[in-house]
Amino acid sequence: MAPPTSVKHKLVATYNEPEPKRKTLAQRAGEPNSIAAVSVGSRPTVKGTTLVGAAASNIRNPSLTSSMSSRHPSTLSRHTSNSSFSSSVGPGLRPKSAYGSRPQTSLAFNKSTLGRPISKSGSRPATSMAHHYDEEEDEDMPTQGRRKGTQPFNTLPSSFQSSQEYSTLPVQKSRGRQSACAPQTLLSTMRDVSVSTAMSKLRIDDGAQKFQLNGHQAMSNKVKLLSTPGSSQKASISTRIRNSRIGSTESALVLFQASRDSSVAPKTPSYIPVLSKSETMTNTPATPLRTSKACPSTNNFLTKSSNIPGLTDWDVDNRLEEMDSICMKIKDHISGSNIEREHFEEALGIFKSRIAELETLRSQLLAKNETLESDLEASRQRTDALQERLLNKTTEFDDQFRAHRHELDECRRAYRDETDQLRRELTDGADRLSRVHRDEVRELERRATVDVEDRLRELERKHDAKLDEERGRRLREVQSLEIQIAAERQKLDLAVQKKEIENQNMREELEDVKGDLAREQTLKNEALRNLAEFKAEIQENRAQSSSTIHSLEGTISSLSARIHFLESGSKAQSDSFADMEARLQQAVKSAEESKKKLIKEETLRRILFNQVQELKGNIRVMCRVRPVFSEKAEGEVARLTFPDNESESKELEILGREERSSLGTVSRKTHSFTFDRVFGPHSQNQEVFEEISQLVQSALDGYNVCIFCYGQTGSGKTHTMSSEDGMIPRATHQIYETATSLKEKGWEYAMEGSFIEVYNEEIHDLLGSSKDFDKKKHEIKHDEQRKQTVVTGLRSAALDSPDTVESILRHAAANRSVAATKSNERSSRSHSVFILKLVGQNRITGETSEGTLNLVDLAGSERLKQSGAEGDRMKETQSINKSLSCLGDVIAALGQGREGAHIPYRNSKLTYLLQYSLGGNSKTLMFVMASPLEEHLSETLTSLKFATKVHNTHIGTAKKTTKMRDRGDA
Ligand SMILES: Nc1ncnc2c1ncn2[C@@H]1O[C@H](COP(=O)(O)OP(=O)(O)OP(=O)(O)O)[C@@H](O)[C@H]1O
């Protein structure tokens, strides 16, 4: 295998390094005639042509010079030698021409000198050698030349042969010039065994590398031989040494050395010699070869032993001269050979030194190799250590990874627990807030109740004191007390409303707190999302997990602090809310108690009112003036004035028509009227009902109450009495509510309503069918004992709910409207009476009461003369006027106050129907309705004058129909 180029270059650089082992062998050889050192550029100067040739070839053997002279110019030239050397030094194979040139030359010389017959004789060593060589020349050399690449040492036999011939030179030389052929043979032998020839056969072969020299390269070849392995070669060398009788000591030694060192010759490429300074000598031009003229008679030369038949004798003198010249040449050749030997020795020294250098290089390389191996081992150890460390690090990393994952799991579990704890805390906080708020509301109600109770106690004391006084005072004092009670009630209502507002505010605050809690919940959710994101970041970046955890813990702690802060704030709000709620409950409770007190007060007030009514008389008259809807449509408005306070008016002044006296003066009389109350055109039904509510209430107390409206047509009777907010609906509602409230006192009332009309002195059931108006006859019957009136055949409706009243009124209005279509303006032509019978029983006291409330809407009072009615209208008007006149007569009779006097109730259906509601133990209220129109002025004045008569009538003291039952009977 070819060595690496780098190594080869290095070897070139270290070629001159000494080799101790080689040096020792050289010393052992004990070579005194060492070859003179040959240096590049210091070509030795040799006298003579041979010497010049030797010098030119640096190390060429002098014998070679002679042999070269007989060599064929074409096969042996300096140039060829140089080429051969160059080829041998180079990495390529040795060229065939270079290898075969010298043997061919030798062979040519042998052939030229000895001829074929001589070479075939085989009697002389030289001849045999020549023959042998000839055979090799003819057969082997080309083969060797071909094989030298694979078997470079197969060339040794040739060189060895030359060596043998060379070794015989001293023997022949000692014989002297015994035969003519001896010198020739000697020359041939010397040439063959010359160092140059021997060196030319030697080579340093290292695999594909071959090193072959010509001339002075022989020494190099010997050196090459040192590295030539193979026992057969050593044997050949030993044989040659034995065969060389006097041989050159140096050659013997070199061969011996080669034989010895061949066994230890390094096989590594480092022993491939590389051209150095000495090698450059091979590049020097070789000495011109001698031609065959140097021995012109060689072809005819015969020795004494030549016994070849057919050959003739030759000229002795010429031969002698030739021999002399040959001898001289031999001498020169010998001297040149000595010089050449010195050169070889010198070259040998150089090569030894180079060998030493190579050895040194080898040792260095070995050392370096060892170093490299040690480095490699160290590197391997380091690699193992690194692998072990890597394994340890991997294990450690896995452990850390597991520990970190475990830590992350712990953190995740801790966060989950903390989140659950926060959620529980929030839930608990919300529950606490709710409880606290409820407590606050209770406390607020309690406080409000206490306050109201205190106020009520104080008020009760005031009222008790006032009630003690009121019993001895008049009606105005009672009214003032009522006003105060109403004011207190209003205050209480305001207080309750205020408490309710406060409660509402507290609820709003609670809602705000809940909103804050919801926002906190949102923040908490955001924090949880941030926590999840932080967890994701922790997983992504484990190195930052600890810092992220700390930051997350900080966020959680801040959130916890904020939650605590909000809880504390909401707790305060909850406290205040609970306080307000408690106060509210207290206020509600106090309001209920106040309501109870008010009921008691109301009872007392009714008692007082009845007492006042008894003191004042049982018939009261109130006046109401309807508003003007349109002056253009209704005409001129009469001049009605209210001299006293309009809100509490009791007086009415009407400017009468112009009256022309007999003297022609025109005057207008002012008519002044005074009633229990005068309602102006701006008054409402609510205001009117407040005035009569106490009277209506008397029906529950067992009184017969009759409220009727009197006035001309279109003055507002029906509006006041039967409209949606008129006295009938309001009275029934109030009675129902009062009856319900009196249940607390044990009173149970049975309320039954009926609605009739008196038309043309006939009674029609408005709750029945309108078809029966003219068919069904109803009779009026009186119960003298019970002082109750009963109309037969009437349908009545139990007032078990306020809605019943509305249904009754709607039904009655529908019947009246149907009737109106038959007889025009039926409603104005008939008296309508709503009868409400109230029968009460107190299950506690055993009292019973039976009262009747009659709400009467009288027909319009018109003067027949003014109305111009005819036919049925006239009959209606007459009937109306009759009944109204009878009413006036009855009232007038009652006003006379005579005991047992006749009261003409039977004169009309109306008065007979109202027998027990007019006078006696009844309470009567008459509304006189006035029209504001100038057109109706006359009729208005008539009505007002009639009302004045009634107002001036003292009917007597009303008595309620109550009985005390024996408890035992009950
Ligand atoms: N105080 C009032 N406020 C407003 N409108 C009123 C008032 N009084 C009467 N009216 C209206 O005047 C008109 C006539 O009233 P209403 O029918 O009650 O008179 P009347 O006296 O009942 O007549 P009639 O005797 O023919 O029944 C109605 O439209 C009624 O609404």
UniProtKB/TrEMBL annotation:
Residues reported to bind ATP: 711-718
InterPro entries: Kinesin-like_fam, Kinesin_motor_CS, Kinesin_motor_dom, Kinesin_motor_dom_sf, P-loop_NTPase
Domain of life per record: Eukaryota
Region (Disordered) location: 1-32, 54-163
Gene Ontology BP, a term: microtubule-based movement
Biased composition (Low complexity): 74-88
Compartments where located: Cytoplasm, Cytoskeleton
PROSITE patterns: KINESIN_MOTOR_1, KINESIN_MOTOR_2
Biased composition (Polar residues): 58-73, 102-113, 151-163
UniProt GO cellular component terms: microtubule
Coiled coil: 355-389, 442-544
Positions of the Kinesin motor domain: 618-953
Keywords recorded for this protein, A-Z: ATP-binding, Coiled coil, Cytoplasm, Cytoskeleton, Microtubule, Motor protein, Nucleotide-binding
MF annotations from Gene Ontology: ATP binding; microtubule binding; minus-end-directed microtubule motor activity
Pfam families: Kinesin
Family according to the record: Belongs to the TRAFAC class myosin-kinesin ATPase superfamily. Kinesin family. KIN-14 subfamily.
The protein's name: Kinesin-like protein
UniProt organism field: Oidiodendron maius (strain Zn)
